[in-house]
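Need a sequence for this fold. Nothing fancy.
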């Protein structure tokens, strides 16, 4: 049984590159380009893990995370924040909201991100 990953990211090129890399690792990946579509997919797709950007159209990542963690059916899904925001207040806020990990895109290679995903799924 493949693990399912929902990748909510408005940067199409990153979504394609990372999505493809995750698929090559045997994950089933669904993508959403905005927060609202991502939130709708959480219920339909029932992912094992969510990769979430913070700067998104329609609903931002903070709102999406709050809704996921505030819902009994989805609150235990690990959410890894993958963003360009490096502000410590943002990091603190998402961790308090229940994010599993916080990765700044520019600080991690594709392989490191995949390893973080695998690590989150083992726990």
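Here you go.
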């Amino acid at each position: 049984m493949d693990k399912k990953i929902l990748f909510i990211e408005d940067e199409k090129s990153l979504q394609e590159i990372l999505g493809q890399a995750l698929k090559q690792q045997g994950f089933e990946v669904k993508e959403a380009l905005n927060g609202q579509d991502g939130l709708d997919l959480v219920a339909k797709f029932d992912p094992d893990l969510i990769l979430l950007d913070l700067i998104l159209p329609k609903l931002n990542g903070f709102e999406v995370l709050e809704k996921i963690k505030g819902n009994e059916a989805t609150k235990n899904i690990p959410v890894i924040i993958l963003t360009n925001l490096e502000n410590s207040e943002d990091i603190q806020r998402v961790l308090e909201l229940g994010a599993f990990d916080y990765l700044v895109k520019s600080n991690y290679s594709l392989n490191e991100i995949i390893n973080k995903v695998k690590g989150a799924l083992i726990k």
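For context: The chain has five helices and five strands.
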